[in-house]
# Entry
Amino acid sequence: MNLPVTIYTPESPLRNPLKLILTIFADIWRTRELIGILFQRDLKAQYRQTFLGYIWILLPPIASTAAWYYMTSQKLINVGSTAIPYPAFVMIGQIIWGTFTAAFAAPQAGFNGGSAVFMKLKVPPEAFIANSVAKIIFDLLVKTVLIVAVFAIFWSQLTISWTILLVPFGLAIIALFGISLGLFMVPIGSLYSDIGRIVGIAMPFLMYTTPVIFPLAKGDGLAATLMSWNPLSPAIEVTRSWLTQGAADPNLVLNFLLLIPISLILGIIGLVILRIAMPHLVVRMGM
Amino acid sequence: MSRSSEIIHPSSDLDEDVLIRVNNVSKKFCRDFKKSLWYGLKDTAADILHPTSSSQDTSLRPSEFWANQNISFEVKRGECVGLVGKNGAGKTTLLKMLNGLIKPDTGSIEMHGRVGALIALGAGFNPILTGRENIYVNGSIGGLHKKEIDAKLAEIIDFAEIEDAIDAPVRTYSSGMQVRLGFAVAVILIKPDILIIDEVLAVGDSSFRAKCLNEIQVLLKSAAVIFVSHNENQVKRICTQVLLLSKGAEVLQTHDVSEAFKVYGRLEAVDYGFESGKFTEPLADVISCLILPKIEHDQGLNSTEPINISIEARATAPIGRCRATLFARSSAGEMVAAYQATVGTEDNIIQPGVVFNVYWEIQSLDLASGNYDFCFSLISDIDYQIIFRSERLFATFVSTEAFNGAALTIAAEGKLNTQKTTAYPQLKIYPTSLPLDIIDQVLAVSQDYKYGYFRVAKAANSTVISTLYYMETGISGLTLDTIQPIKDEYWLNCSSLPLNIAELLDSYFKFTFVRNPGDRLISCYLDKVAGRGVKKSMINKALGRNSQDDVSIDVFLDYLSSGGLKSNVHWIPQSLIVQETNDNLDFIGKVENLSDDIQYVVDKIYGKALDKLPSIRDHKTNASEFYTQLSISQRERIAQLYDADFERFGYDKNFWVTASRLNSSGE
# Structure
């Protein structure tokens, strides 16, 4: 009988890094059905106890847009001029930014969702993370309703060009970048909840240095410097331009595309680290 | 063999039947949570930064301890290992390593084939999802495709007996339902090569447990099983060997399940301070223990009624200010309840030689029905350390309602048989009118099931003992050679029982077995006189003959009728022995009706008949055959000699007529 043999030893799985990477991807492929089931179950479970259901996916960007529109229209704050009407600018910025934050949070959320199972069953953690990522895509699909609404309201001031076809691609890069960064956080974030708290505090600051609510700052000021160094600035700016204006600044596009190799490398490293950390994390889960 | 942490390749092992191979595995844990997190970070970092350095690290860092240490074993297909040990002995850690959830710090683990695991309650169920959805999730985690799960869904639901609840969220399930579903998924759905079952079968009703054990036995034909349980009967039923863990280390690995549990019990006893090992100098001798209301005949203690227990003890060493705690220990060996009392003394220190009292006024025991034994400890008022723990004070059946079953109560400390009786706290003994020689001769007492067994001469003792032994231990095939140690270990041996035990005996289920008097006389003659001849010289001497003269059956009958009838236990009429305890015997069984009558006894004391009796041996003497050669007058002489026996036990004087069961005067 040719039974598969699994051997567990104290050695670091990184002794054979290539094999480890292949194993991880093989596991993800192997558990694709599980990911599907988890995805379905989470979709069902997520809003099972709500009255409004999936409408809750739409409400946060609407509320946030409403708040910023109120503040700017009442001249409580001045964000400067935007290339497209401000509500459309904020709404679309929020949706793109939301994709990033959701992607960043997805690995830890997915991992936490699976922790009860990790303690008891041998299952690749990536399956739970992948499921969490799938939810981002679902949320985005729901949010297209908002984008359609924006176009319906401001159709005369927006440009629909072929570049709109690039938008999913742009969002995918942003999500990938978010996930890669998020993956890095899982091992340490699972041990120390400080990480989650720091992220919670830092995220709004990151948003204000990204052209989500404010247009890209110009000049030599601190805001402009921060925005120019922020890798998310070109991502948001370019994707929004593709969606609402057609062409985007070629320099920004180039910077944006640089995120692809960076994300892929970071992502794979993040997966590897998570795998190595996994048994150490499970030990602490029971405590 | 490659040394990466986790590799999968087709088995190329010659010894293909070994499915689990654990080699010198150790695992460190850290008690301090903050340190543990920090170590976790460091270990992860070390794995990343120094992947090639040998990490067989056997040194402990501060706050660390060995949760598992140097454990090695192999499990083949068809074998079931019972993993036994107290909470914290490292069982779950080992299971988690076997399942690859955590990795060992030393050694290696080889697992061949698909692993099904049921670690802890509701293993991996999502409480929000329905039972049906969870089946798909868990099946998928186990590597099954949707179609495979579809095919087995009905069987799983049926086995788990949750048809009605299958579409309800799992959070609405009782723990029993969760275990049922978890078991069905782990065993029926996954059909593993290796099944790992943590201590989950403690939950759920007994019929389901039986079903699970059956299912495991079926699976065992094609799989290796690791089974964690505290329940000796469960382990005995399905395990082929036991691995006993204590404080992370392997204490014992044996195929003798009873032995393992004996050692386990002893380990536990040491931990609870029962064994003298921990308290080399006992601080007190218990002089008496009085329980009110008295534990009555046929009744245990009522769990819901007030009970007063007082102990009189003599200090053998200075005892400081302390409080006394009475512990109830279940038959599974767990401390299940504690009752407090203050030690009745005015002085700060009880000096050696001073007699003191401890008095518990317990409103209600609040114990579930079952057998318990009780012991007490003295706990220092200053540092709350246990400074003394007694041996068993008494054991009794505790019932939540009036108890109507067979008498199952014992009021004695354990191991009365040992020579060390004086080392144990003494029991307050009640006076008896029973002559000591009779007791000495006829009594053996079971510790586990609380019955007295009157060993009437020539009454198939070995058969009865071996049956009762089987009932108590699950071990059959007892031979004459093995009876002696049993008398020492499992029975309160008569020879060292104190005098005043009548009341003690009253509370036992007492029975004896008798044999057709004619048959008994002839078989005694064939064995003791004509055969081995051990009684020949005694008879010849009494009749004034040469000691080595042959004794014919007629000479033997002459001897008996001339007054020798009462001179030896082997031919003294059994009615005379039984008469001494006339009012006390609960049942008199017949050797001719051995199977049924033993089942009756077993049913009385065990609560149910045994599925299968151990082989009941035939008597070696061929009395029946010999009888056919006797003349009518010889037969009549035998009948006359044992007239009372024939009458009392309802035997036909024509001998060898299988009589129906007879109950003694009690019924």
Notes: Chain B has three domains: 18-23+65-268, 274-399, 436-667. The mean pLDDT of chain B is 72. Residues 274-399 of chain B form a domain with the Coagulation Factor XIII; Chain A, domain 1 fold (CATH 2.70.50.60).
